Amino acid sequence: MNKEFSTAQRPTFKRTLRRINMTTIVIAMTLVWLMLSVVSVVTLKQYGQKNLELTGATLSHSIEAALVFGDETAAADTLATLGKQGQFAEADVYNKRHQLFASWAYESDASSDRFNLLVSHWLFPKPTTQPVIHNGEIIGQIRLSARDSLIGHFIWTSLGVLTTCVLLATAAAMVISRHLHIDVVNALQKITDVAHDVRTNRNFARRVPEERIEEFHRFAQDFNSLLDEMEEWQRSLQAKNDQLLRTAMHDPLTGLPNRASFRTHINALMNDPVAKAGSALLYLDGDDFKVINDTWGHAAGDYVLIETALRLVEFGGKQHHAFRLGGDEFAVLLSNISDELQVQRFCIALAQRFTTAMDMHNGHAAPFTVSIGYAMTSEHDSIEGLLEQADKNMYLMKNQRTRTLC
Questions:
Q1: Closest residue by Cα to residue 238 from 63, 69, 44
Q2: Among 51, 372, 393, 14, which residue's Cα sits nearest to residue 234?
Q3: Calpha distance 74→39 (Å, rounded)
Q4: Region for 137 from its dihedrals, namely left if φ exceeds 0, alpha if ψ lies in -120 to 50, beta otherwise
Q5: CB 263, CB 135: distance < 8 Å
Q6: In the prediction, which pLDDT does 333 show?
Q7: Boundaries of each GGDEF domain copy (predicted)?
Q8: How buried is residue 214: exposed, middle or buried, by Cβ count under 10 Å (0-12/13-18/19+)?
Q9: Measured between alpha carbons, how far is 176 from 171 in angstroms, rounded to an integer?
Q10: Using alpha carbons only, what angle is made at residue 321 by residues 320 and 322, rounded to the nearest 5 degrees?
Q11: Is residue 38 scored above 80 in pLDDT?
C-alpha cells in the first residue's frame, strides 16, 4: 500500500525550486573554489620548479671554484649562505667521483613550519640536480630540495580570501535566489567562465564583469581582487626567474655577460650564416695582472677588472658585445665586419684604450695593458677551431710584447 502525504507534508514547487537553487549554488561555488585552488597551486608548482632549477644553475657557478680547489669549507659556507636566504631546503654537493663533498640542510620548526614543509614536498617531489662544469668538463653535481616559506603564507591567504568570498556569495545567493534565479545562474556562469579561462588558458588578466545584482557585484570585485593577487604573484615569480637567469648569465663583479652567456652567443652566431660572414672574435688577456694583485692587493685587482669592463663596453657600444670569461680574460664579438684589415684596426684602437693608467682607488695608478688576438668567424666551421685560433693569436701577441720588453 502506497504511503500518502498530507497537504502539510507535501513540498510545494516553490520550496522545491528553492532547494534546487540552493543546491546548485553550493555546488557551483564549490567548483569555483576548487578550480581556483588548483590553478593557484599548479601555477606555483610550475614557477617554483623553474626557480629551483635556476637556483641550481646559479649555485653550480658559485660552487665551481670550491670543487676545483677541493675547498670543502668554502663550499659549505656558500651552501649555508644561500640556504639561509630561503633558496632551498637541502643541498648536497658531490665531486666527480660521486662522493659527498659538502651539504647543508634547513632545520625546520616542526610545530610552526609543518604545513610549509608539506606544501614544499608536494610542489617539488623530486629534487633537481645540476652539473658543475669547469673548462667544459663536469667536475661534480649539486642536488637541491626546495623550500619556500612564502608558499604556505600565500596559499593560506588565497584560500582564506577565496573561502570567505564563496561563503558570502553563497549566503547572498540563497537569500535572493527565490526572486533572482535566472540572474544568479547568469552571474555564476560568468564567474565559471572566468575561472575556466584562467585554469585552461592561464589568462590571469581576465576579470569578471560588473554584475547588476549588488551582492554578486561585490563578489565579482573580491573575485577579481584574488585574480589580481594571483596575477601579481605570477609577475613576481617571473621577475624572480628573470633575475636568477641574469645572475646565472652575468659576471657579478663586472656586470659583463659571463662564459656561459658567451657560449650561448657564439653558438647562435656560428649557426647564423649571415651573421657569421660579417663577424670576428677578439680574445683579450691582461698583461702582468698578477703583479697588480701582488703589489696592491685583490681589491685593486678588482678595480682593474671593473675598469677594463667599462672600457670594453665604451669601445663596443651597442654594436659589439663584450664578455668576461674568467680572471683577466675577456672576449669581444665584433659584428658588421667587412675584412680582416678592419679587425686589425679594431685591435689597434682597442689596445689604445688601455694606454691610460688604471686608478687603484688607493691614491695610486698603475699601467695595465692587454694582449689581443683575433679570429675571423667566416674562416672556421667549428666553434672550437675559432676559439683556438683567437687564443693562439692572443698568445703570439703576448709573447711578442714580452720579447719587446726584454
A1: 44
A2: 51
A3: 41
A4: beta
A5: no
A6: 94
A7: 277-406
A8: exposed
A9: 9
A10: 125
A11: no
Q: Contact 371/398 with Cβ under 8 angstroms?
A: yes
| Alpha-carbon gap, residue 115 to 159, rounded angstroms | 14
Whether the predicted pLDDT of 279 surpasses 80:
yes
- For cell 658559485, the residue is 62
Say what the pLDDT of residue 405 is. Answer: 45
Q: In terms of DSSP bridges, do strands 321-326 and 137-145 run parallel, antiparallel, or are they unpaired?
A: unpaired
Measure the CA–CA gap between 363 and 313, rounded to whole angstroms.
25
Alpha-carbon dihedral of residues 158, 164, 169, 175, nearest 10 degrees? Answer: 170
Torsions phi, psi for 317 (to 5 deg): 60, -145
Instruction: Using DSSP, state whether 304 is helix, strand or coil.
Output: helix
pLDDT in tens, 317-371: 888 999 999 888 999 999 999 899 999 999 999 999 888 888 888 777 888 889 9
Residue among 228, 302, 328, 391 flagged as catalytic: 328
CA atoms of 362 and 163, how far apart (whole Å): 62
Q: Per residue in 310-340, is it b (16+ CB within 10 Å) or e — as a string?
A: ebbbebbeeebbbbbbeebbbbbbbeebeee
| Separation CA 146–CA 93 (nearest Å) | 15
For 242-384, list the strands marked E by DSSP: 280-286, 321-326, 329-334, 358-359, 365-366, 370-376
Active-site residue flag, 328? yes
